[in-house]
Design a protein that fits this description.
about 190 residues, alpha+beta, two-stranded antiparallel sheet, 4 strands, PAR1 protein, signal, PAR1
């Protein structure tokens, strides 16, 4: 009985030491996260973590957390809370990082809800930048959620190019997108 207590104390000490060492050596490394904490996490270098699925030769699926090239704005050493995952309608088992979910009305409704938009700056920053990459200003998209969301969805789906009219010799116009800045969290 005494040896079980000693082993348990040793295990607690080892776990405490591991947490302290991780914090002193730079914090979160995406490659050290498991599939239940990877998506929506940010490494100590400020790079977003991304969950990837690999199929081994045996056919077995393996999930691996990797560091992406996408930088988070003003966030480092962050594993997203369960409250924000639920409030924003995101999934910890999301593979990769994509703006595709912005096309889903149910997702944008949750993302734009006050529970998410005002309380989960990490997720809002990610989707703000993804929307900007598609030429959409997230606050405007959220405003459209309260009005005519179909028109805003059509703008997201467009390529950003204006097609030439039926008159020959007219060249298409390409519109550039200026970098956008995420709204400051309150």
């Amino acid at each position: 009985m005494a040896s079980n207590f000693g082993l348990m104390s040793l295990a607690v000490l080892a776990l405490t030491l591991a947490v302290c060492v991780q914090g002193s050596l730079g914090g979160i490394t995406c490659e050290n996260l498991n599939k239940d904490t990877c998506a929506y996490a940010v490494s100590s270098s400020g790079k977003r973590c991304v969950l990837e699925k690999h199929v081994r030769r045996s056919g077995e699926e393996a999930y691996v957390c990797r560091t992406s090239e996408i930088e988070a704005d003003k966030v480092k050493d962050w594993v997203e809370s369960d409250q924000c995952i639920e409030a924003c309608g995101v999934d910890r088992k999301s593979l990769g990082i994509s703006s595709d979910s912005l096309l889903e009305c149910g997702f944008t409704h949750k993302l734009c809800s006050s529970q998410c938009y005002n309380s989960c700056p990490n997720i809002v920053d990610l989707y703000f930048n993804l929307a900007a990459g598609e030429g959409v200003f997230l606050p405007k998209l959220c405003e459209a959620q309260r009005g005519d969301a179909r028109r805003e969805m059509a703008e997201i789906r467009s390529s950003g190019f204006v097609a030439p009219g039926p008159v020959s010799g007219v060249n298409p116009v390409k519109f550039g997108v200026a970098p956008a800045v995420a709204p400051a969290s309150s």
